[in-house]
Protein 1
Amino acid sequence: MKISVSELIVRYLERLGVEVLFGMPGAHVLPIYDRLHGSGVKSVLVKHEQGAAFMAGGYARVSHRVAACIATAGPGATNLVTGIANAHAERLPVLVITGETSTYIFGKGGLQESSGEGGAIDQCALFAGITRYRKLIERTDYLGQVLNQAARALLGPDPGPVLLSIPFNVQKELVDAEVLEQAHLPSSLPALPLQAAPVPELARLIREARHPVIVAGYGCIRARAKGEVARLAEALNIPVATSLKGKGVVAEGSELSLGCLGVTSNGAAYRYIVEQADLVLFLGAAFNERTSHLWDARLLEGKRVAQVDRDDAQLGRVFRPDVAVHGDIREVLAELLERLQGCAPKGLDRLAGHRQSLPAAATPAHPFMLMEAFFTGLARRFPQDALIFDDNIVFAQSFFDVSHANHYFPNSGISSLGHAIPAAIGAKFFLRDAPAFAILGDGGFQMCCMELMTAVNYGIPLNVVLINNGTMSLIRKNQFQLYGERYIDCDFVNPDFKLLAAAFGIRHLRIETEADLEALFTQADLTGGINLIEILLDRHAFPSYLSAR
């Protein structure tokens, strides 16, 4: 049976399990949009293509499934770049479909032509560094192989974004429907073989250590190994610190949790590792700038170091481990737990002493009192099943105790402003009933606030937490600390957010006192509506950490 390429692409989306396609139609992708009628794929109209890419990324992060976005040729495709770069950094399986002018006008200067011919921009080249696979499909005779390659990149052990750019005339060509059978979709990710020798070595290191510490990263979440990490920690009394992306691997606030290890955190995990630990076990955690406190040598100095990661490129990338295990974290920990049966639990005397030596709780005079109280209230009000997309991250890293049953998604990727709102909206298309929060500053808010109308149009409940201090906080902090308080292009005048919320038809709540926060968490509907929650902050108040020079 012959079908159009556009219909084949829609069937391919269904075959990949894609249920939602985020995007904005344009002339060069209308044949694909037309075939969405009656399909199992729901299209979502965004306000800007960057929002479509961020929504697809948010969907993929929550679902652990292939997500998809679509845009027309030229400016539609170029507007996707930042969001797809973020998905690439996060290793998210996002399928990007873009249109292109018809092949017979390549090089002639067609409207929005992006073929790379005759001085036109090269759309595929633009995405070359931020996709696992990309292809301008100029003919149909190799279409099956292209779809198979795309599926392998999306569903393989190291996933990432894929770009398929399809010229307008090719979308309308007829092909045999059996072409779709050439796309072989793996039913599940292939398990990595365990490295038989290092696991016993890892068990030996843990047996010999007196005060080991686990540093759990996002790899534990990707491997669905939260339970195994908790069992290992509890069986042997091993304290656990997490990376920023790993918050929630173990319940923060529990006896063995050291909280978040990172330069913008409160420093508790850093101090314990530096002062007490004799073995540091990294589980799916990169030793990046944030986690390593700008690669502070004291963290690993004089200690044995072990590392477990599915990605062999991470092993030994920054530090030299005494034992490195390349394998699935969940499988490695399962074997490790078997080998450590009968091992005596470690003493908790140093951990108890460490807690007694921590600085006293912040006084009411500290400048971030409202942010601390907000995150305390958030953890209490939503102990499980909440989706928190956080572009700010600095306050959550210190003040937010993430339970193992919540879902915290810091904007770590390429740390792009304007991410939280569309990412949270995308996630809600997968988990419709989960309470959702998008946390961001007033600068980032104005990069993406138009997507609130997408939430309104599709009835997506969402709480947007807007930190209002009338400045680009990180820039102002750097200019204060490093540039002699010579401020330039960091301060601005905000709109009246109450009026803006009214224009969107959503509720506005202004938080100036802890009493306002109490009312927020006890009286406001934080699950069934769209709320713009404005928290006032002094622009002259800066976190104490020093950014990299």
Protein 2
Amino acid sequence: MENSKKFGTFLGVYTPSVLTILGLIMYLRFGWVVGNLGLLLTIFVVILASSITFITGLSASAIATNMNVGVGGEYYIISRSLGLELGGSIGIPLYFCRTLSITFYSYGLAEALLLFWPDSWGIMPTHTLQFITIAIILLITTLSGKSASLVLKVQIPIMILVGLSLLALFFGSLSGGPIKAPELIPSYRTAPEGFWYVFAVFFPAVTGFTAGIGMSGDLKNPRKSIPRGTIWAVLTGVLIYIAVPVLLSVTSKISPEELAGSGVDSWIKVAIFGSILVYPAIWGAILSSAFGSVLGGPRVLQALAQDGLAPKFFARLSKSGQPTTATWMSGAIAMIAVFIGGLNTIAQFVSILFLTLYVMVNMSAVIERLVKDPSFRPTIKVPWYISLAGAIGAISVMFLISPTACVLAVILEIGLYVYLARRTLEMNWGDARAGFWRNLIRYALIQIRIYGSKPRNWRPRILLFIKDAEAQMELIKLASWFSQIFGISTVVKLIIGHLTESKIDIENHRLLIKDKIMRAKLTAFSEVIVVPEFEVGAITVAQSNGLIGIKANTIMFGWSESHETKLSQQRIIRAVSQANKSTILARIKWPRTLEKNKSIDLWWGGQQRNGDLMLLLAHLLVMNKEWERASITIRSIVDSKEVQGKMMDSIQPLIPKARINANLEVLVKKPGETVTKVIQQYSKNSTIVLLGLKITQSGGEEEYVDFLEELISPLNTVVLVNNPGLDESTPILLEV
């Protein structure tokens, strides 16, 4: 396959941009603007409108100098700065905007060619006009699909024609009579709607500066060409758009009244040689704009296909390096659009979508600048508040043009963003969002250092140790239920080994766990750590995991089938309690009726610190959608009726104080009846049972494990909880 020809600044960026700027509005509406606003307000309109595009051009240039801009132009810039979801929500409408623009410009050129329609034939039938439009679309699509170089070279003579028409206006305005004083005061002769209406009509004239950016994938050096070509095109447009109203204002060939009521007639009356130079320039300007759209649109579709947002075959290139498939698809859509009624309304909607593009380009620059990623080192430095002003200006113009179309465009793009976000798109590049969240984390950590951690601010930060993510998915799910509303769960797999002696693919292990968690649609992080021995490794990881201020505060294990592992867990629990870490030891055994009538039993043993955490975990559990209808029952066991009343009096006031909905039962144990039998009798059908977990003394692990085995054997899911309550960072729920 041959390499596609790459272009430089002049042919690849400046030419398509400046020719799209100097388009139909300049010829058809500039006289009307001057005739209604007068010279001073017209120049103000030019400066105001151009400042928005100039700032947007600066923002795009700043980002372009910081990255190797690939195919897709503005879509590429936004998607690599703000992410694939936001890029796609802008890129998809951008593609249809450029594609429908082919129809609009081709239709306009067909109407302009009516000059050659003989009067004796009567009014041209609509179907004939549509046929000519389709023929124009077919011609420019064929040329564009064959060679971008040919299309860009065709624009050189068009630029010459536009230049000749400007020279004709210049010399024509200074000949044929004395120069008159320009009208300075607005009259609104044919624009009673006022200043902002005229501004909205004129604004599309300055929006063509992105045509060159759309050629990003075909440039030799986009990082250099995009800034230079775009900024020079915008400045050229500003100078010409200031000069033209001055020339139209001072000439004696046409009055302000005639200007306000004319279209292209103002140019024909003023320019030397009249229509001989003006009409070819108009046709060339329209054709150039159509070429710009048919070059830019397919390249956006190509980029969308490369990123997986459109079918992959649209990314295919011809032998000459052109996105031929995408080009013909764009041409087909443009031809179908010829038969759509109400194109003027659609054109207004398209203008709004282009403006949302400018908003996002500016906001990309704002976020990149504020996030201050070390990798963001543009050679063109634009202060963030300048880019923000450009974004605000674009939003304002959107509402001025059409509030209804503005709202519809925003709804469309939000809908696309939500859809793309739900697809969980994979990206192999970083973007500014990651930097934003890291900056936010840094700020939050500093604030945590200042304010410290208090009991009322306690959140579960669970460190769950597993052996096999797939086999222990229900355990991961339980940890996620405890933490997904307010806390963080990190799933840790310890691999026994030595990094110095063997090569272990840690990242691959971590990604496998991450993939299983995401497939289960759970909220948890994944971590894989190589340790020489499980017990010491778990204690070390439990102490060191996390950042200062947000270290893990709760260690969680699954109930092991191995007796030795259970003993090891008891030793780990004893050690981490000395480091002020709470512990959860869970045996998963869901009943068949898990989907309905869920019940949570909490056995209050008199150790208040454990009770705090158990009650808080029960509360966090019922905040999940799957558990929102579950009932919580607090149960306690006493030896006599007399003690029962005292226990009721001591626990009952704590429930409303804790602001958690729960029932209370204080049970009187029969003579000779064990605590184990009472718990098993009352909780045998409960969905989940929370029990206190004591810290064993060295050497007492075996006896305690045997006791727990007997206790939990007939029960469903059991969660054993230990809360050391040794410092202010541990949960003391009932005292808050």
